[in-house]
Design brief:
It is a single chain. This protein is α/β, with parallel strands linked by helices. It has seven helices and ten strands. The strands form two sheets. Strands 3-2-4-1-5 form a five-stranded parallel sheet, sandwiched between helices. Strands 6-7-10-8-9 form a five-stranded mixed sheet, covered by helices on one side. α3 packs across α4. The chain starts with a strand and ends with a helix.
Length: about 250
């Protein structure tokens, strides 16, 4: 018996890895997250058992219960897929599920997926790193565990791109802390909703307007000079004068 922790990628089925698609086609049981695109579910073995374990506000699916369910299902079946949005180990709590299976003596294999932290900006035409604009990228969750707090002020760095996952609910506080940490209030931002689906929408503005944007989950927030770009070759067209205008605001 083996459990496969499979990354479903950022959205539509054509962005899955070949390995992920092959496992879905022969799985006996698939436990899947709430935001998995329907086109991905269509690839599942038609005789497989589908179990929705997506967490919902006020719902009953805690992580401990999901871990226990994975162990119980794996004890009865040879091929079990745990289908997770994006990449299983990037804010997907796949590491906790892997540990639970290991404690139970159940074999587990991880199939990487394309994370929305990188693919959502890419699909919006935003390079998260770009010479002259961003020397690196920081990925952070905007939804900390109860009792913990993320100090966004420490992440204020104009030389880097900040990508925030699950940050819509706290976007006002995120902007407030970043500005308090020294980031220019007019730093470009982009919010990509429903990335890699037919409902994808891109909203662009500046940091001190983030709190008031009409946006909703699931969404990825990109903060930094690159958020103003709309395609990866835009700097080639702008030339040095355009680059100066972008970096100086």
């Amino acid at each position: 018996m083996t459990v496969y922790l499979v990354g479903a990628g950022p959205g539509s089925a054509d962005l899955l890895t070949l390995r992920a698609a092959a496992l879905l086609a022969r799985a006996e049981v698939v436990l899947y997250d709430r935001l998995i695109d329907p086109s991905v579910i269509e690839l599942v073995n038609p005789i497989a058992e589908l179990i929705d374990v997506g967490k919902r506000p006020g719902g009953s699916h805690t992580q401990d219960l999901i871990n226990d369910l994975l162990v119980a299902v794996a004890a009865r079946h040879e091929t079990v897929v745990r289908l997770k949005g994006g990449d299983p180990f990037l804010f997907g709590r796949g590491g906790e599920e892997y540990e639970a299976l290991a404690r139970a003596g159940i074999a587990c294999e991880v199939i990487p997926g394309v994370t929305s932290a990188l693919s959502a900006p890419l699909l919006a035409g935003i390079p998260v790193t770009h010479r002259g604009l961003s020397h690196g990228v920081t990925v952070v969750t905007g939804h900390a565990m109860a009792g913990s707090q993320i100090d966004f002020g420490r992440l204020a760095n104009a030389d880097l791109t900040l990508v925030v996952l699950m940050g819509i609910e706290h976007r006002g506080e995120i902007a407030h802390q970043l500005i308090g940490g020294g980031l220019d209030p007019k730093t470009p931002i982009a919010v990509i909703e429903q990335a890699a689906t037919e409902s994808q929408r891109i909203t662009r503005d500046v940091l001190d307007q983030l709190w008031g944007l009409d946006v909703a989950n699931p969404a990825v927030i990109v903060i930094g000079a690159v958020a103003r770009l709309s395609h990866t070759d835009s700097l080639l067209a702008l030339g040095e004068q355009g680059l100066s205008a972008l970096t100086e605001g």
